[in-house]
Specification:
Blueprint: H1 14-19, E1 27-31, H2 37-44, E2 49-54, H3 57-63, E3 69-72, H4 79-83, E4 89-95, H5 104-111, E5 115-126, H6 131-138, H7 160-169, E6 172-181, H8 198-206, E7 212-221, H9 222-228, E8 233-234, E9 244-250, E10 260-264, E11 271-277, E12 286-290, E13 296-306, E14 312-315, E15 322-323, E16 327-329, E17 332-335, E18 342-344, E19 354-362, H10 364-373, H11 379-483
Parallel strand pairs: 1-2, 1-4, 2-3, 4-5, 6-8
Antiparallel strand pairs: 5-7, 6-7, 9-10, 9-12, 11-19, 12-18, 13-14, 13-17, 13-19, 15-18, 16-17
């Protein structure tokens, strides 16, 4: 059974989000329950009456233990529609099922006949527009996997707008739009942002829904939503990872999370401006600003200190800032760590009430080019360039190695496919000859039976002739005796 997994509700998944939305004691129609991990939960924990449709007979037998009634067969044969036409359900579930159907829109539309007016359809589908897939497509790579975004049994693909259109055409409105997230490199699709150029990487990282692994929708009948004037609740975050700028205050005990403030920051756009109000400034020894929590180039537009009345006290330049940047020239910093730090030390903070920090986030490769353009290429910058070139070369070699392995795998798969095709041809040829051989064998058996009967008949004639011949001999002998011969 391919989809026989343990149910872990504490782990965020499409199925766990669906099950958390079901009320106790409900009537539920579950499509594609597999071995029944969710069916058991609905029956035993929520006391629901569950009806199931499952194409895998072995899986259906396992899930049926927790179901009121079971149909074993293809969802798109619509046997469930006829069998349960008199039932009305509170919930109809499609947990990672629609992508396995030839016409999911038609199936969704038919479910309206079995759903209560205030009932809900709960569904989850994988997002084919995930950045992991787009990165591989850009590199002319597309591989199916046993499970996940590119499950090898998927025959229908969904993006956000594709799913919305499908629901709308089926007569439903998504009253809750939710999602499960997985960033590039955190799922079964082998992809990495370093496999594309810096420009494309930044564009990909700006995309909304780039990290959505599954869409999870709650649907209600369109006419019911209109009648109730119900609003749509959008819970999908544009990005799974929210980048942040964090400011730490050292009051003599070092950098502590509890004495820091955090502000969201986007990689998109140009200048960022943050204003930091200081509490109890007389206690502050040093301040640390972490502009963003990822590898990046930072251009410091301005860093100004203000008194309580708003008077600008000081403008701090890049030369006055300590940092953990790999390279720095003036107000430009290149960070090759996901924890960039700018340290403001040796300053008197007691009269300062606010800091205004204006900066730009620059791609690390663009920042490297900018830094090199600002100076003579002395040995330090030659070293930096060599490091960057080595990193790029390593990435290229790694990609080439992966492509070579994938090519070798594809060649081997082609060879095995051809071998299998040849063997299937032989089997099919033998299967085609079987009826002819069986007919020839039957004819041989019939001929043997005919000849056996003929032989038996001839033996009977011979025996009869032998008996007649013996009788004639005895008669002749008697005549000889009577004649004295």
């Amino acid at each position: 059974m391919k989809y026989d997994f343990e149910l872990v509700l504490e782990h965020e998944s499409g199925l766990s989000k669906i099950l958390h939305k079901i009320e106790k004691g409900s009537a539920v129609l579950e499509f594609g329950p597999a071995a029944g991990r969710a069916t058991a939960y609905l029956k035993q924990k929520l006391g629901c009456q569950v009806y199931i449709v499952e194409i895998d007979a072995q899986a259906a037998a396992s899930a049926a233990k927790f179901a009121e009634d079971t149909i074993v067969g293809d969802i798109e044969s619509y046997a469930w529609l006829e069998k349960w036409e008199c039932k009305k359900f509170d919930y109809i579930l499609f947990a990672d099922v629609l992508e396995h159907l030839r016409d999911p829109q038609k199936v969704l539309a038919k479910t309206k006949l079995l759903l209560k007016d205030d009932g809900k359809v709960l569904l989850s589908v994988p997002n084919v527009a995930h950045n992991s897939i787009l990165i591989n497509l850009y590199n002319n790579v597309f591989h199916y996997t046993p499970v996940g975004l590119l499950d090898d049994s998927h025959i229908h693909l969904f993006s956000y707008h594709t799913l919305r259109f499908c629901c709308d055409q089926a007569g439903y409105v998504p009253v809750i739009e939710d999602a499960v997230y997985s960033a590039v490199g955190e799922n079964e699709v082998s992809a990495d942002y370093h496999q594309v150029s810096a420009i494309l990487r930044r564009e990909l990282q700006k995309r909304i829904y780039r990290d959505v692994y599954q869409f999870v929708f709650v649907l209600q009948k369109k006419e019911e939503v209109i009648r109730q004037g119900q609003t749509i609740e959008k819970r999908i975050k544009p990005h799974a990872k929210d980048y942040k700028c964090q400011v730490f205050f050292d009051r003599g005990e070092g950098w502590m999370e509890e004495d820091s403030i955090t502000m969201p920051v986007s990689l998109c756009g140009e200048q960022k401006e943050i204003k930091i109000t200081l509490c109890d400034p007389e206690e502050i020894k040093n301040i640390r600003i972490d502009p963003v929590d990822c590898e990046s180039g930072i251009h410091m537009e301005s860093l100004c200190l203000f008194e309580r009345d708003g008077t600008k006290v000081q403008k701090v330049s890049g030369k006055e800032v300590s940092t953990n940047a790999e390279y720095q020239i003036g107000d430009d910093f290149l960070f090759l760590t996901d924890d960039p730090n700018l340290f403001l030390t040796g300053m008197q903070w007691k009269d300062i009430s606010m800091i205004k920090f204006v900066f730009s986030i620059v791609d690390i490769e663009q920042m490297a080019v900018r830094l090199l353009a600002q100076c003579d290429i002395d040995k330090d910058y030659k070293s930096m360039l060599a490091q960057l070139e080595k990193k790029q070369k390593d990435e290229v070699n790694k990609r080439n190695e992966l492509e070579a392995k994938m090519h070798a795998c594809n060649v081997e798969l082609d060879r095995r496919a051809k071998e299998l095709e040849h063997r299937m041809d032989v089997i099919n040829s033998l299967n085609e000859r079987m009826p002819v051989l069986e007919n020839d064998l039957k004819l041989c058996r019939d001929e043997l039976d005919r000849r056996a009967k003929e032989l038996e008949h001839r033996m009977d004639v011979i025996n009869r002739l032998n008996e007649e011949n013996l009788g004639l001999k005895e008669k002749l002998e008697k005549e000889r005796v009577s004649l004295g011969i």
